[in-house]
């Protein structure tokens, strides 16, 4: 898809080009346009700014398919990393990520959510003088990336001023967002989102989440809570959800809901785990496969409504639950396709392999995109990252 006109708001595009140069090496502007689906005019505009900031440089010329030789663009060698943290109910996953998106280090640390401030001590173990800033992904709503006030029922958090606590402890820029939003940003930088300006990232696992990217920017909603599709109500009197309501999608197909259904159907015993359910499905147990197929049906039916609301170009499915996707899919595909309007039934759904590093790398992407934050999403924190990177709002270093 070709995107013309001004650079999409949110400024994920410049960071995405840095990621492309980092992963593929020096390439021409024309190849950048082909890889990203952006118009040549947009690529010229964005790379001009990156050159002025001293983040990329022009290298040797190579023969073109006609006309003048094409100049290759490459990353300027510079030190600087982002620290990303994915917070869960029992651990924090940390990665350090270089400007091109490559993961340098990866660690996992035990965590008790009853003491949110302890995240600061965990992050401090990974800080060094090269870190440009810290990105944190949490399973809940965040008022704004810059302030980082969190409501996360699964962690027992309400109005937790996480961003300020971490800035006071660490003394570096800190950006906080919903964990699925961070995955959506990372997808724009390094994944399927390079070729699409509007898409959904849907995660299945402990919960069900959705990151929404529209015209190249993450849509966060009025109070940072957009995309909580796990709390779309399916029934009036269904099982109680972790949010306190009853009958939510997540209460049926989140990990706890799947396990409850499996126990009720006798597929696993009272102390059985999801690993037991998955093994039974792989061993051919039809009752186990039916549990997953019904979860897929509920997800597909719900997602059809979201697709009609947002009109994405593509849907990306991620998360711990995709390990069992072959058993979700028989219920998901017909439920989604049959409920989509005929013109949308060929919507592409991409299922991506999963690792926990992806969550934390997504959080680090909050820092990697912040030097280009003309929309003001990261506020003062983005300016501080720009200063640490050595760039200025005026362009040249």
Automatic annotation (TrEMBL):
Superkingdom of origin: Bacteria
Signal sequence coordinates: none
Bilayer-spanning residue ranges: none
SUPFAM superfamilies: Actin-like ATPase domain (SSF53067), Winged helix' DNA-binding domain (SSF46785)
Keyword line: Kinase, Transferase
Segments of skewed composition (Basic and acidic residues): 383-397
InterPro entries: ATPase_NBD, HTH_MarR-typ, ROK, ROK_cs, WH-like_DNA-bd_sf, WH_DNA-bd_sf
Region called Disordered, residue ranges: 375-397
Keyword Kinase: yes
PANTHER family per UniProt: BIFUNCTIONAL UDP-N-ACETYLGLUCOSAMINE 2-EPIMERASE_N-ACETYLMANNOSAMINE KINASE, ROK (REPRESSOR, ORF, KINASE) FAMILY
Protein name (database record): Putative NBD/HSP70 family sugar kinase
């Amino acid at each position: 898809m070709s995107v013309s006109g001004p650079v999409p708001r949110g400024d994920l595009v410049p960071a995405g080009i840095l990621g492309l140069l980092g992963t593929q090496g020096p390439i021409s502007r024309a190849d950048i346009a082909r890889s990203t689906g952006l118009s040549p005019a947009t690529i010229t505009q964005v790379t001009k700014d990156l050159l002025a900031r001293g983040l990329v440089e022009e290298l040797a010329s190579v023969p073109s398919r006609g006309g003048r030789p094409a100049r290759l663009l490459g990353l300027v060698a510079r030190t600087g990393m982002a620290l990303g943290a994915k917070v869960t109910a029992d651990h924090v996953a940390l990665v350090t990520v270089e400007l091109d998106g490559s993961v340098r280090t990866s660690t996992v640390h035990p965590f008790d959510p009853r003491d949110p401030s302890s995240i600061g001590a965990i992050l401090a173990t990974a800080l060094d003088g090269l870190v440009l800033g810290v990105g944190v992904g949490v399973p809940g709503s965040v008022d704004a990336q810059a302030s980082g006030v969190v409501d996360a029922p699964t962690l027992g958090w309400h109005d937790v001023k996480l961003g300020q606590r971490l800035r006071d402890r660490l003394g570096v820029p800190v950006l906080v967002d919903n964990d699925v939003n961070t995955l959506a940003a990372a997808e724009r930088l390094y994944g399927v989102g390079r070729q699409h300006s509007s898409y959904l990232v849907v995660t299945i696992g402990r919960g069900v989440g959705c990151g929404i990217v529209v015209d190249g920017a993450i849509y966060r909603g009025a109070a940072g809570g957009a995309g909580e599709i796990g709390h779309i109500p399916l029934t009036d009197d269904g099982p109680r959800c972790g949010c306190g309501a009853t009958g939510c999608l997540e209460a049926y197909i989140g990990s706890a809901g799947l396990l409850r259904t499996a126990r009720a159907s006798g597929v696993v015993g009272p102390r059985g785990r999801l690993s037991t359910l998955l093994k039974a499905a792989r061993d051919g147990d039809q009752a186990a496969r039916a549990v997953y197929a019904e979860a897929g049906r509920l997800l597909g039916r719900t997602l059809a409504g979201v697709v009609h609301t947002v009109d994405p170009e593509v849907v990306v499915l991620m998360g711990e639950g995709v390990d069992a996707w072959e058993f979700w899919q028989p219920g998901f595909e017909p439920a989604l396709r049959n409920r989509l309007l005929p013109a949308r039934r060929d919507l592409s759904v991409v299922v991506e392999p999963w690792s926990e590093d992806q969550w934390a790398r997504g959080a680090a992407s909050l820092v990697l995109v912040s030097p280009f934050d003309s929309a003001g999403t990261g506020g003062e924190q983005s300016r501080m990252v720009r200063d640490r990177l050595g760039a200025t709002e005026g362009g040249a270093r």
